[in-house]
């Protein structure tokens, strides 16, 4: 499939587990993918791997917890490519704790990365999408934003905000043919999941058993849905929150 031929996609958290799979999927369907991450080395490695496979990709390091960095990032992409057709707001952090345990710093950092960055990046890309007659935005929420897991109040509330943000943005910009949707993954095997498993004292086998499907998900299984939502195959999907959980409702 070449659903993104001639299109430019910006993927945040593109150096991570799910983000690198999204970058790979979009590039394999002929997008030029701009891989961005606070981890410069990870972003460059992903982009270099895609280029080595004959695909179109570049890397930009940016800490999207900062508003100015979000705007500078989009300006850099527009200076190089003159367009952003697809924005995938995928970067996220997961800081553990109930309301008494979580630090103020962790609360603030969670909201800065998980939701505030989406606000700044969407404000930066939407005007040029409107000018070109449309675009697609896909946000990574989480099943925990819909069905809270215990002891992750900052993460869960930030992801609930992502879900609401997605619906609000879709409602406001559908008339401009900017489609905004979100994926809500369950347990997906990435560095973030492995860190969580280590913290909890569980094993990966324990986690597999929690999922009715019998195993945790794979990053490429999320990437396939993101690509579908971003593509012209989903022209009437706007404001959808798509759960990808192997039938697991609560972690
Ligand atoms: N893995 C799961 O089980 C799971 C489940 C539901 C939702 N998610 C969500 O999926 C998304 C990707 O998570 P993942 O599992 O691939 O995790 P990951 O830790 O492998 O990747 C996240 C990436 O985001 C980057 N990032 C973090 N802070 C940043 C910042 N300030 N600026 C720019 N980049 C930053 C990290 O460097 C990392 O490369 C996140 O939004 C996460 O909340 C993951």
Question: Please, could you describe this protein's structure?
Answer:
The protein has 251 residues and is an alpha/beta fold. The chain has a single domain (8-244), classed as NAD(P)-binding Rossmann-like Domain (Rossmann fold, 3-Layer(aba) Sandwich), CATH 3.40.50.720. It is 49% helix and 16% strand. It has helices spanning 17-28, 40-52, 67-81, 104-131, 143-146, 153-173, 191-200, 204-210, 219-230, and strands at 8-12, 32-37, 56-61, 86-89, 135-140, 178-185, 241-244. Strands 3-2-1-4-5-6-7 form a seven-stranded parallel beta sheet, with helices on both faces. Strand 1, helix 1 and strand 2 (32-37) form a beta-alpha-beta unit. Helix 1 packs parallel to helix 2, helix 1 (17-28) crosses helix 9 (219-230) and helix 4 (104-131) runs parallel beside helix 6. The longest helix is centred in the middle third of the chain and has 28 residues, at 104-131. 47% of the residues are buried. The site of nicotinamide-adenine-dinucleotide has 29 residues, from helix 1 and helix 7.
Structural class: alpha/beta
Number of helices: 9
Radius of gyration, rounded?
A: 17 Å
Strands in their spatial order, largest beta sheet? 3-2-1-4-5-6-7
Q: Would you count the extended β strands for me?
A: 7
Uncertain residue segments: none
